[in-house]
């Protein structure tokens, strides 16, 4: 059996692992990335939010990604029957990026991996972590490649970016039920031959079919568009076991999109993701940290998944670097408490979306520009900005405003904010 020694081992080359690896490679520590699949591989998470651009930039991946010409995303549109609410990331409360990308993740993740390899990262595809043992802070990982060859990798720190692989949560019994109610999704891509020219064709949109059921439409620069349906698990299951029939049925429910997508064949058999929310009892331990979906995944409605993955990936990388260089790191406050602060904000907005309270605010007219700018900053991923009153008072702001709007239907709500 091969034996290797590294400073930091990263499991998984999705967005979380990629930004961690990109950042650490620049710092000159010895790292290794092991990735179970062969890229490109189909994966969901195609609508990004601006905060991720900070992470790709810091990880040295921005230029390579930008050169791919992915569709630029400047905001998002929420459709509910005749009502439309558009967020424009250039008009938000917090400073920061005002655009990002909407991306076929297969191509995007492949480009990140290729760029890491070009930068000299030791990234091994088709190599699956099958066991990890800890000896104090040092970890001993067994990884098996597709030929069945096993390698022992000793590392001073381990960052688990394995997404739904959830390597350490499973091995160390850290899985915990999510606080969110069970939702599921079905998605695929179509060749978007009926795409209108101009903004209407390229705008990322969420068509709300019922308070808890919505269709996503994510156009890509390669001419394909991702279409997905999200709802309570019972709703998605009732669409039927055949995912092609089920997604077709869902598209028929959208007055707005049925003409554009109703007759188009799917590029791949629609994928179903059942009860997708995940959580863990703790996000770190002696010699390891959990990031991205390996720790927590909430809900796709505000496209927060990749942002959480890259925020936690790059932060874990920075802290791990300090630790292997001999500094003491307070993982509780510097990592878990910080990450949980952002998770709490996103959780509130997701919960308030599904109660209908946030939708009440989105579609109330006239719009209150200050409220909208504050919420727009949250949708852009700036959930750690404590200057934003809608971050600080997230647990009350939306609920109270929606309550007041309902009580005073027909009245202005600017004086109430
Ligand atoms: C229905 C749905 C829609 C979504 N839509 C969006 C969206 O629009 N925008 C958004 O930002 N997010 C979205 N997400 C969330 C997004 O998919 C994830 O949050 C994001 O991909 C997490 O990145 P990651 O790097 O943590 O994990 P991943 O991208 O899943 O990468 C993990 C990698 O680890 C590898 N791995 C797993 N096990 C092992 C092992 N044992 N050994 C070695 N490697 C391993 C996997 O092969 C994989 O490549 C959505 C999620 C769902 C369920």
From TrEMBL:
Entry-linked Pfam families: FAD_binding_3 (PF01494)
Taxonomy, superkingdom: Bacteria
Coiled coil: none
Gene3D superfamilies: FAD/NAD(P)-binding domain
Domain FAD-binding: residue ranges: 5-165
GO molecular function, one term: FAD binding
Protein name: Pyridine nucleotide-disulfide oxidoreductase
Organism, scientific name: Sphingobacterium athyrii
């Amino acid at each position: 059996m091969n034996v290797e020694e590294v400073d930091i081992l990263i499991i998984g080359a999705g967005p979380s692992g990629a930004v961690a690896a990109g950042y650490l490679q620049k710092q000159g520590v010895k790292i290794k990335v092991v990735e179970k699949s062969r890229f490109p591989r189909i994966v969901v998470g195609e609508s990004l939010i601006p905060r991720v651009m900070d992470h790709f930039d810091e990880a040295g991946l921005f230029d390579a990604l930008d050169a791919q010409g992915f569709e630029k995303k400047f905001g998002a549109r929420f459709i509910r029957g005749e009502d439309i609410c558009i967020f424009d990331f250039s008009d938000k409360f917090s400073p920061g990026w005002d655009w990002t990308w909407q991306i076929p993740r297969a191509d995007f993740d492949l480009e990140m991996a290729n760029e890491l390899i070009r930068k000299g990262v030791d990234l091994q595809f088709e190599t699956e972590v099958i066991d990890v043992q800890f000896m104090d802070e040092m970890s001993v990982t067994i990884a098996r490649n597709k030929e069945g060859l096993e390698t022992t990798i000793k590392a001073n720190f381990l960052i688990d970016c394995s997404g739904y692989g959830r390597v350490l949560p499973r091995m160390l019994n850290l899985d915990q039920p999510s606080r969110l109610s069970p939702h599921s999704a079905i998605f695929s891509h179509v060749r978007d031959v009926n795409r209108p020219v101009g903004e209407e064709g390229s705008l990322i949109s969420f068509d709300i079919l019922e308070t808890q059921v919505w269709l996503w439409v994510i156009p890509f620069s390669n001419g394909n568009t991702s279409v997905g349906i999200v709802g309570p698990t019972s709703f998605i299951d009732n669409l039927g076991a055949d995912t092609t029939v089920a997604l077709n049925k869902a598209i028929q429910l959208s007055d707005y999109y049925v003409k554009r997508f109703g007759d188009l064949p799917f590029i791949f058999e629609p994928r179903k993701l059942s009860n997708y929310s995940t959580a863990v009892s703790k996000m770190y331990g002696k010699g390891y940290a959990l990031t991205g979906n390996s720790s927590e995944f909430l809900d796709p409605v505000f496209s927060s998944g990749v942002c959480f993955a890259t925020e936690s990936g790059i932060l874990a990388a920075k802290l791990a670097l300090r630790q292997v260089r001999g500094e003491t790191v307070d993982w509780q406050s510097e990592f878990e408490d910080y990450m949980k602060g952002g998770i709490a904000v996103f959780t509130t907005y997701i919960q308030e979306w599904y109660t209908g309270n946030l939708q009440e605010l989105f579609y109330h007219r006239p719009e209150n520009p200050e409220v909208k700018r504050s919420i727009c900053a949250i949708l852009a991923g700036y959930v750690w900005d404590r200057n934003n009153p809608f971050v600080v008072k997230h647990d009350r702001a939306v609920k109270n405003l929606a309550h007041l709007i309902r009580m005073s239907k027909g009245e202005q709500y600017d004086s109430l904010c």
